[in-house]
């Protein structure tokens, strides 16, 4: 009786293990990448000026901004491709290290005579802050689809004297179509992996139980190649990648 009970327990345990394996199925990660040359670009410029009088600092920034717009127009940039709406005027307050304290020293010369002497004493001011200057910044975001304009743009804005030039940002006009190609290949990659595993484990796929899209990558920033005359910048192919996690049910052959 004891032997029959033990055999039954072992049989149920073995059956439970088989069901658990069947329930868990096969989980695979599918990956793929499509290479394409970016065809849409943008760059961010900043013109900064610091001054004690805000209006004077802004006037200098406005003058340089007009020069930038004029020079960009000369090399074929339309106004609609340039966003110059962001301007920041930031007052900077600082804590003075020392202040002058006009104290008076009184000296008694006699019972009926006193002398008052002003003393200029240097003392620390703990809680007082004063307006020191204003920082005025205008930001330009310039979009273009012809990379040949990039070197011309750099030449123009450096002559005007902009304060900051960002890295070149790249993207694709039809980025969704490129990503869909990568996604289709990632799905096929996941299916191929699952079929390979099932074949090696001597089981069959019984259908897809879950699917999750987990990854997307496309180029965002690209460092400036050169600001020197006579050098033409170029862009190589970049990868647009996709990734999925797929779970398949399995069954015995």
Automatic annotation (TrEMBL):
<dbReference type="InterPro" id="IPR052022">
    <property type="entry name" value="26kDa_periplasmic_antigen"/>
</dbReference>
<dbReference type="Pfam" id="PF04402">
    <property type="entry name" value="SIMPL"/>
</dbReference>
<protein>
    <recommendedName>
        <fullName>DUF541 domain-containing protein</fullName>
    </recommendedName>
</protein>
<keyword id="KW-0732">Signal</keyword>
<dbReference type="GO" id="GO:0006974">
    <property type="term" value="P:DNA damage response"/>
</dbReference>
<dbReference type="InterPro" id="IPR007497">
    <property type="entry name" value="SIMPL/DUF541"/>
</dbReference>
<feature type="signal peptide">
    <location>
        <begin position="1"/>
        <end position="21"/>
    </location>
</feature>
